[in-house]
Amino acid sequence: MSLRKGSKVWVPDRDFAWFPAEVLESSNKQLRIQTDSGNKIIVIAPEKIFSRDADEDEHGGVEDMTRLAYLNEPGVLYNILRKYALNDIYVSLYC
């Protein structure tokens, strides 16, 4: 995974599972990132984070999870949260 300055990522958190962040600096062994809220800067190993869609906040989620650029746990959970908040959750009627 190639992460550079400005890359959007998901960072693990004990209390909230995942939170969105942006890479400030990168090297082979560690990344310096800032949370999207701007109140926390963290140094973390690259293998502990996941990439996220750069424009996911602009949309109300995607209909089909396979349309996510990065199909990973935090991305899927965030998409479900967005769809639920908009009361746009769907279920299959074909059983």
From TrEMBL:
GO molecular function: ATP binding; cytoskeletal motor activity
GO CC list: myosin complex
Domain Myosin N-terminal SH3-like: 4-54
The keyword ATP-binding belongs to this UniProt entry's keyword annotation: yes
InterPro entries: Kinesin_motor_dom_sf, P-loop_NTPase, SH3_Myosin
Keyword vocabulary terms for this entry: ATP-binding, Nucleotide-binding
One Pfam short name: Myosin_N
Protein's recorded name: Myosin N-terminal SH3-like domain-containing protein
